[in-house]
Amino acid sequence: FNPSDVIQLGQHEFFMPGLVDTHIHASQYSYAGTALNMPLLQWLNTYTFPVESQFKDLDFACKVYKQVVKRTLRNGTTTACYFATIHTDASLLLGQIAHDFGQRALVGKVCMDINNSVKHYKETCQESQEETYRFIAELLNKKYPLVKPVITPRFALSCTGTLLGQLGAIAKNNNLHIQSHISENPEEVRLVKQLFPDSETYTDVYHKYNLLTDKTVMAHGCYLSDEELALFKETGASLSHCPNSNISLCSGVLNVRNVLKHNVKLGLGTDVAGGYSASVLDAVRRALDSSKFLAIQDPDLDPLTFEETFRLATLGGSQALSLDDQTGNFEVGKDFDALRVNTCVAGDDRNIVEVFVAGRRVVPFTDS
Ligand code: XAN
């Protein structure tokens, strides 16, 4: 090195691996921190679907997507796994914005051919399949080095079996990532059993349609049985633990110890806007709180340690997204995704002085 190129860390400063958000709805950022007064299914019908339907408007989408990418980067999210909406062009725009700001991202155009409450916010099965093909082709064609498409059936209640099967086939034939939701809320689990009577469990529904692979991440999983967790392990599918959302929507509490005991890959998700914070540091805190809450109820349960939770927020997340060959820690050969932290101030994003993704400084933002 030329000595003038060497920058010394200041006192009270250190580098840590970048944070990985394994589950965030970019399209819900506009109402984060509001509208948490009802359980999941009513919340989707009342707030979420009406807002998401507005992303047909590309100006609105551009404004919200720029805000969420900038906010998450400032909070140290070097890798984000995003849900967009059903709109292909707006979803492509999210990919472009993540690329422009230098964030590593998986971007999913949401697929849903059932919506009995907000009827204009859904696709036909054929539209969903065709638009998914278009989304993948156009995003891959951009050749963004850090942004990839992810197949995104919203969840079993929003998709017919036919659509789930088509999406499983597209993912398999193109070796793509997959994301969805599973076993978040008791009412949801009950309705899935009703809608898919041929499947023994919620996990079996996704498995039947080839949606559980070693590139799959499923959000929540609060009510998965040991047998279902064993199927996650067998297929290599992972879970995204979203403690803020689990509490905010009164959905449930994930027993992380049990997930880890089953050797299922696990990362943390902010799940904006079911979760009210776009910060993975907040997810770390809520994960610790949730685990201590379970330990209060069952003294035989060991609460998570800080070290374990830090790992979930970094390496665990990269493993959950099958990106651990590129990011997650400072192992030689991986990209330099890092936060320069100064411990002198705050206890929030103000501690994050600089953010690097793949060796490029992306925070503070430059004007260009
Ligand atoms: N299931 C969901 N859960 C959640 O927390 N947010 C969502 O947008 C959603 N859709 C289905």
TrEMBL record:
EC number: 3.5.4.3
CC terms in the record's Gene Ontology section: cytosol
GO molecular function: guanine deaminase activity; zinc ion binding
Gene Ontology process terms (BP): guanine catabolic process
Cofactors named for this entry: Zn(2+)
Reactions catalysed: guanine + H2O + H(+) = xanthine + NH4(+)
InterPro entries in the cross-refs: Amidohydro-rel, Guanine_deaminase, Metal-dep_hydrolase_composite, Metal_Hydrolase, Metallo-dep_hydrolases
Domain Amidohydrolase-related: 15-362
Subunit-structure text: Homodimer.
Protein function: Catalyzes the hydrolytic deamination of guanine, producing xanthine and ammonia.
PANTHER family: GUANINE DEAMINASE (PTHR11271)
Family in the record: Belongs to the metallo-dependent hydrolases superfamily. ATZ/TRZ family.
Protein name per the record: Guanine deaminase
Source organism of this protein record: Neogobius melanostomus (round goby)
